[in-house]
Design brief:
six-stranded mixed sheet, Metallo-beta-lactamase, Chain A, OB fold (Dihydrolipoamide Acetyltransferase, E2P), seven-stranded mixed sheet, globular
Length: about 675
């Protein structure tokens, strides 16, 4: 008997291992294909693309999500998703329009920084084959009029489009900020919660309508309701383009319907694991989506709580328990993925989720589906206005709650593990005192990050800000920012998108001083975002000879007066302790290099190369005198200036220096306690 049990357990384990290996192989093959598109993709093309969504930037340019309809020069592009910019649009575009245009494409890429958003993985996970821009637009074929013409006249039209068809491009940056600060971003997608509520309402509606027709129907009204809900969810999956959260929720609805119709029961965790397995097998890109993992973590935690039947819960207590459960269970996941945990989120969700799920989403979806039926045009318009009214009320509540409590994030690994253990303990059927102890394990998440640099040492983090410059210098008790990265006419700022998250991820979110090398946009563009975040920031004007000492580390500002250009007038910074030296050289050229050589040490551990590695800098004498152990070129990948220049790179290589480029290696972190080591982020 024991032998048979062991044999059965071994077969079960082998089956699980085989299934996991199959899944790993599927994801690996997909990732290799998605991250290395065919060579013909890069370059100029003449394409027909359909507009899936579009967003107008602050400078009037357009950002479009498109799907290729025809591509003569590169058949691999047919059916591919592209993310394209149109910098000088000459006509008004709408969702569904087909554009015949000449475009220039490149493979997906993005900056890589501590605490930063990985744009490259985001693109790959959502199936984008390339990014690029329109070089010219030849013709546009208009799409037929849809329900979006009605949505545009409503106050929260961008949010309603997100709920109706998953197009979130119409949500403004200010609206996104409110949603992030209140932890309610999930409300602006067709989530599993929305699908569940929608299917439940369809079940009730079909069941009620079926009762008078019961004698003439082949099945009971309850069965008709279940089948109607399953069909409605299937239509919703098709309508949203098989969005992963909708597929997961739809699969749960279908599985639950099948269990009820066949009168069979399955363990909920097996059902959820099977659906997750099949979802990854069918759509491997979901493994790169934070929302996919958060969605399954949320469902698993709720099922764990409510499937145990530890004690009967009233509706009010059930809602409170659900929000507390989600707040605790998702805290470690949010810390490990998006690194933002608004403390106001449980209250914000408690106030807005019932309204959005029970009123806004059903009214918006039914109004959109009824738009194409002429007899129901008035009903469609009324439902859309109702959805807009409820959404306005809910968003006003969220705007009032924003910034009421702080947002915590960017915790160390040990704190996330401790919180995960505490959250798991809270969901176990323990005594009240034991659960209280488990809840206390989550308190370290509220503590700010601490500085990890030892007394007398310093750390330099050269950030990946594209074709620009920004660096964070940390000592034992102080933080310095040198330059703030570029900003763009579209309104995108590296100061907000890269520098501030990097500050929060690498230490306490404080800043003692800011040094601006010079006022060019690639160095100073992100300064407004930094000034808004730190209103009382010490940013003295650049003057040659200014020096200060922090925690056993000396800082010297070196500048040549009477320089011929802003680049040559750069404020450069020499940082030294007892055994190490780092030089941040700004955008100086060869003439200034020659004048500064007598004031520079003969040998440095880390050099941020002058002017991003341009040919007009890094002279032979400069390279030989500084003899840097590591050289960092702060330059964007495939930038139009050709930085760093091959001749300059060869000069440093011949000198024996180790070469790093932010555009290829991501942010680069060096510490004086480990002089020989540079840690790349990518």
């Amino acid at each position: 008997m024991t032998h048979h049990l062991l044999a059965g357990g071994a077969r079960h384990c082998l089956t699980v291992v085989a299934l996991l290996m199959l899944l790993a192989g599927r994801v690996t093959v997909w990732y290799l294909q998605a991250s290395s598109p065919p060579r013909c993709v890069v370059g100029a093309h003449e394409l027909n693309v359909e507009v899936l969504s579009l967003k107008r930037r602050a400078d009037g340019s357009l950002l479009l999500d498109t799907e290729v309809r025809s591509a003569a020069a590169c058949p691999a592009l047919r059916g591919a998703r592209l993310r394209l910019s149109w910098y000088r649009p000459t006509t008004l575009l709408h969702r569904g329009d087909v554009v015949h245009a000449e475009v220039r494409l490149r493979t997906p890429w993005g900056t890589a920084n501590p605490g930063g958003f990985d744009y490259r993985l985001w693109l790959i996970g959502r199936g984008y084959v390339a990014t690029g821009y329109f070089s010219s637009v030849v013709t546009v074929r208009r799409a037929p009029v849809s329900s979006e013409s009605q949505l545009k006249r409503l106050q929260r039209s961008g949010m309603l489009r997100a709920l109706v068809n998953g197009d979130r491009s119409g949500i403004s940056d200010g609206e996104w900020a409110v949603l992030r600060e209140t932890g309610t971003v999930h409300l602006m997608v067709i989530s599993g919660l929305h699908v569940g509520v929608f299917s439940g309402l369809v079940y009730l509606l079909v069941g009620l309508l079926s009762r008078p027709l019961g004698p003439w129907l082949p099945c009971q009204p309850r069965t008709c309701g279940l089948l109607g809900a399953a069909c409605a969810v299937l239509a919703l999956v098709v309508h949203t383009g098989a969005d992963p959260p909708v597929v997961r929720a739809g699969a749960m609805v279908w599985a639950y319907t099948a269990c009820l119709l066949t009168r069979r029961r399955f363990a909920w965790w097996r059902l959820l694991a099977a659906i997750g397995y099949l979802a990854i097998l069918a759509q491997p890109g979901v493994v790169l989506r934070h929302g996919f993992w958060l969605s399954y973590a949320a469902v698993a935690s709720l099922l764990w709580i409510f499937a145990q039947d530890w004690r009967p819960l009233t509706r009010v207590r059930g809602m409170l328990a659900a929000q507390l459960c989600l707040a605790l269970a998702l805290a470690p996941w949010l810390g490990a993925t998006v690194a933002q945990q608004p403390l106001i989120a449980p209250l914000a969700n408690l106030l807005t989720v019932p309204v959005i799920s029970l009123l806004t989403v059903p009214a918006a979806l039914l109004g959109s589906l009824l738009h194409g039926i002429p007899p129901a045009a008035a009903l469609s318009a009324g439902l859309l206005r109702l959805a807009d009214f409820t959404l306005v009320l809910a968003f006003d509540v969220l705007a009032g709650l924003a910034d009421r409590l702080p947002v915590v994030g960017y915790q160390d690994g040990w704190r996330l593990l401790l919180c995960a253990a505490g959250a798991a303990g809270m969901m176990l059927p323990l005594e009240r005192r034991q659960r209280l102890l488990c809840a206390l394990a989550c308190l370290p998440l509220l503590l700010p990050n601490v500085q990890t640099v030892r007394e007398g040492h310093f750390r330099v983090s050269v950030l990946d800000v594209g074709q620009g410059s920004a660096a964070i210098v940390d000592t034992a008790r102080h933080r310095l920012l040198v330059d703030a990265g570029p900003a763009f006419p579209s309104g995108f700022s590296m100061g907000e998108a890269v520098v501030l998250p990097a500050l929060a991820a690498t230490g306490p979110l404080t800043l003692d001083r800011f040094v601006l090398s010079h006022a060019d946009i690639d160095h100073a563009g992100g300064l407004p975002a930094i000034a808004d975040a730190f209103p009382g920031l010490d940013a003295p004007p650049c003057r040659d000879g200014v020096a200060w000492r922090w925690d056993g580390v000396r800082f010297d500002v070196l500048q040549v007066s009477g320089a011929a250009s802003r680049n040559d007038a750069s404020c450069t910074l020499l940082i030294r302790n007892a055994g190490s030296a780092v030089y941040l050289s700004g955008d100086i050229g060869r003439n200034v290099e020659k004048q500064l050589l007598p004031r520079l040490p003969a040998g440095v551990d880390l050099l941020v190369a002058p002017h991003h590695g341009s040919r007009s800098s890094s002279s032979v004498g400069f390279v030989r005198h500084l003899d840097p152990r590591h050289v960092v070129f702060s330059a964007g990948r495939d930038n139009r200036y050709g930085h760093p220049h091959a001749e300059v790179v060869a000069r440093y290589v011949a000198n024996g220096s180790r070469i790093w480029t932010t555009g290829m290696d991501g942010a680069l972190i060096w510490e004086s306690s480990r002089r020989d080591q540079v840690l790349p982020t990518r």
